[in-house]
Design goal:
mainly alpha; single chain
């Protein structure tokens, strides 16, 4: 499978990609736990059917020490016992924030209250931005049909700064 277009070979999209990666770095360097960040990215990518992002973020999470059990259960997180209450709140926010078109109410007050119980304002800001950013990345990759399977942890580190 080949992508429809190489966005890194186009001036405008390559410039955008570098800035996009730097936006991700801002979130990565926040106080939002790294494991939570990867779990959120994986769940949103599963919902959006973005294979390349699932490939990337499961490999990054594994390289950072995440267990196979937790990675395998992200898709079924509500029924899984391996996630903390804080992670469950973040995953609920990611799910509702990704499925906006499925609910005329968007993110529920219940989910928002659960997030507020576990994260401070700085972390919530990072979490909201992360959900927006991964959804944008999913859409870009799905539109151009970027293939999955060949990602290696850290391979895009050169893009930032």
């Amino acid at each position: 499978m080949e992508p429809r277009i190489d966005l890194f070979a186009q001036e405008t999209s390559a410039k955008f990609g570098k800035r996009f990666a730097n936006a991700g770095l801002v979130i990565e360097q926040s106080t939002l736990p790294r494991a939570t960040q990867e779990l959120v990215k994986i769940r949103a990518s599963q919902i959006n059917g973005c294979a390349v992002c699932i490939d990337m973020h499961t490999k990054e999470a594994a390289a950072a020490g995440e267990t196979a059990v937790r990675l395998n259960l992200v898709a079924a997180w509500p029924e899984a016992t391996v996630f903390t209450e804080a992670e469950r709140a973040a995953l609920a926010l990611a799910e509702e924030g990704t499925r906006l078109a499925d609910s005329h109410h968007g993110v529920s007050d219940e989910t928002w209250a659960r997030v507020r119980e576990h994260y401070d304002d700085e972390q919530i800001g990072a979490l909201v931005c992360l959900i927006a950013l991964i959804n944008a990345a999913n859409r870009i990759n799905v539109i151009v049909r970027n293939p999955a399977g060949s990602y290696e942890a850290g391979m895009f580190a050169h893009m930032v700064n």
